[in-house]
Amino acid sequence: MLANWITISRFPLLLISVLILYFGPTTLRLAGVGLLFLGLMLDTVDGMVARRTGQTSLFGGVLDIAADRTYELVLWVCFADLRLIPVAIPLIIIARTTLTDAFRSIGVGQGTAPFAQHRTALGRFLVGSTWMRTGYAITKTTTFCGLALAQAFLGFPAGTRVAAAVPTMMAVLHVTAWLAVTFCVFRGLPVIIRSLRNYWATPTQAPGAVVE
């Protein structure tokens, strides 16, 4: 399906973006910001294509989340490694992602698509509403592209206007980074809470007991 191929194309784009971040000259790093933005925007494109062509599927939903997770984890870790953000940010994201994806896999194993697993109004709002998804996408994309741009600006000679703008950029980007973390954590809470409630609501069965 076209939507799945769009999702798959994001992986090589991410690899190229990371290589540019670490090894590219200043001019290439500037161009790399656009490449990174393209990879992030394809997350929206693949979903639109899937819905308009009627090609939504359980596999496509899981693949989409896998691509999102790969982008998020790789980029947060890279920017922390480049010392552009505190290491606490990727640690929080990794912990949240590990928990939510582990619990979400239970529903996927039962044939339920990831975003169809929430039955309460609050859960659907936090995880799948336009406000939450758009807010997270904007803060995340702004932070990732802004940090990539700041990394490129660091290649300019000290004393230039571009280099002088980096401290102000970083102050703003730290705010957007923590906003993205907040969105990420709150969107993951319904997944964890729902799974724990289901576990506690399930009566335990003694080992070897026979169910009639």
Walk me through this protein's architecture:
The chain has a single domain, classed as Four Helix Bundle (Hemerythrin (Met), subunit A), CATH 1.20.120. It contains eight helices and no strands. It is globular, with a radius of gyration of 20 Å.
Question: Could you outline the blueprint of secondary structure elements for this entry?
Answer:
Blueprint: H1 2-23, H2 26-52, H3 58-81, H4 88-109, H5 121-128, H6 130-153, H7 161-164, H8 166-201
Helix pairs in contact: 1-2, 1-3, 2-3, 2-6, 3-4, 3-6, 4-8, 5-6, 5-8, 6-8
DSSP summary, beta strand count: 0
User: Could you say what the CATH topology is called?
Assistant: Four Helix Bundle (Hemerythrin (Met), subunit A)
Specify the oligomeric state. single chain
The profile of the biggest β sheet is:
none
Radius of gyration, in angstroms, nearest whole number? 20 Å
Low-confidence stretches are none
Number of helices: 8
Give the mean pLDDT.
85
Overall morphology: globular
- Percent of residues in helices comes to over 70%
Order of helices and strands: HHHHHHHH
Q: How many separate domains make up the residues? A: 1
Backbone structural class: mainly alpha
Distance between the termini: 45 Å
CATH class term: Mainly Alpha
At CATH's second level, what is the architecture? Up-down Bundle
What percentage of amino acids are in beta strands?
under 5%
